[in-house]
Design a protein that fits this description.
homodimer, alpha+beta, Glutaredoxin, Glutathione S-transferase Yfyf (Class Pi), Chain A, domain 2, 2 domains, Glutathione-S-Trfase_C_sf (chains A, B)
Amino acid sequence: MITLYHHPLCAHSRFVRLLLGEYGIEPQLIEENVHERRRDFLILDPAGQTPVLVEHPSTVVPGPSTIAEYFDETRGLALGKHRLLPEDPLSRIEVRRLMDWFGQKFFREVTDWLVTEKVYKRFMPRERGGGAPDMELVRAARSNIRTHMRYVSYLAGSRKWLAGDRLSYADLAAAAQLSCVDFLGDVPWEEYETAKLWYSRVKSRPAFRSLLADRLPGLSPAPVYADLDF
Amino acid sequence: MITLYHHPLCAHSRFVRLLLGEYGIEPQLIEENVHERRRDFLILDPAGQTPVLVEHPSTVVPGPSTIAEYFDETRGLALGKHRLLPEDPLSRIEVRRLMDWFGQKFFREVTDWLVTEKVYKRFMPRERGGGAPDMELVRAARSNIRTHMRYVSYLAGSRKWLAGDRLSYADLAAAAQLSCVDFLGDVPWEEYETAKLWYSRVKSRPAFRSLLADRLPGLSPAPVYADLDF
């Protein structure tokens, strides 16, 4: 059995949920508010960040890329030609490069600011940084996302999937970030038709369903969030 | 032939230099100031970050973890029992967890602030963020490093190397970060004897030599930086 400590708007957790869906695994989901620094969670993973995956009885796998590598190493061959980290070294470089691009660069320049300012700060006590959103950071993120949308359009326009001929971790990493921003209504889809067509293909996959059902108390997703014909 | 685009105080580049040293590879080093956003470098890697490794004629490998995985996949077996990413899945989780810990968490909480404030801002034009160091960030980094030193001491005190019985990427990732901070004289070695003993073992390895010879114009390393009996 697999348990995933996650948060609905943690993009890294969403990446792992998509990945598990593609492996055909339905995890037990435990929602973790990392800002609370819960003692039992810190014992599980001293870094105190979601996602943390537990494969029972006792294998603890923290962090999105370590989880992705672990699943490729233990279950990748079973996916055959649908393997999410392709076999040859050059394709693996490209998939990992894009995992870093979206999981680190896009996250740092877009998702982190939007989710922290618009959502997390509502639920955090003032002495730990909670309060009203810093609109300057929100505007910076909304400006930065355009560079990334152009890049997604470029990749999706020159390849079948973002890293090549096959769906890979790269698509899941990009879609995970975008789905968080889309929940908040901050993706300018109308200006990036090629990126939108690629995203609608990822969004239609069965692995995506549980993400589209995510709700947070007091926070409704943007109207097109769960719409497959957005 | 292998070329590495790096910067002497880029901790991620230092990790790759240590790794190459352990594989017995002496790369051609090209110093890259990423703040200049040089066109040819951005063509090589649109993320525009060091390190970027080129294996001639045409394999471009960007980013520390992608480089580490690439070398394990293409040359790991040749290292035999000295393989830097051990073979069994559980040990690989632990090594990757610690690579993330030092390469991301330690970097974000310590190295990035110290190097940016004390070094990079000197060489950057004012309109791109250059200027005097923000001493509040320097103090925060000097406070944060203590948590990490305790963690290194704990790991080094309970295992032979940071991730287990053998030297691994985890040791190189931790030493790379610490070596940058040590260059600036901001590691409180005297308070963390166990961490110091572990570091002196890594620092004595032949792979470390080129790091100890690093100099920057107008910036001398701290007195103990290159001293093996610090």
